[in-house]
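Hi R.,

Here's the chain you asked about this morning:
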Amino acid sequence: MNLAPDFPDDPLMLHLLQILHEGIGLPKHKTITLDTSVNHDLGCNSAEGKQLMALLKLEFGMRLGDYNDKRYFKRRGFDAYLRYVEKGSEGKRPLTIGMLYHAVKAKSWDTQALETKGYQKP
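And here is the predicted structure, written out as tokens:
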């Protein structure tokens, strides 16, 4: 996997990358940055997103606070006219690796702070 030159190289980030790689997969030939979104760029769906957040809670002791998966992922469901509905996350906010990293470091999810803060070097 290719990491951006300014990508954090601490044990916390390496553990997070391992979880992401095992849970949803990381591309081999695409550069990973803190702005890479797990839902748009990596194709993480709502079920994988729920598993990911549960694992971050377990592994890092992160409190989910005001995290709402519907903000980042489409709802799974069945529509009699459209058949099975989900696929993709068009129209949803990006859930970035940087947001996950900051939440894990703070051990808490704060949607407003994470979405407005963006990534700032620690």
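One quick note: The beta strands are 2-3, 31-32, 77-79, 83-85.

Cheers,
M.
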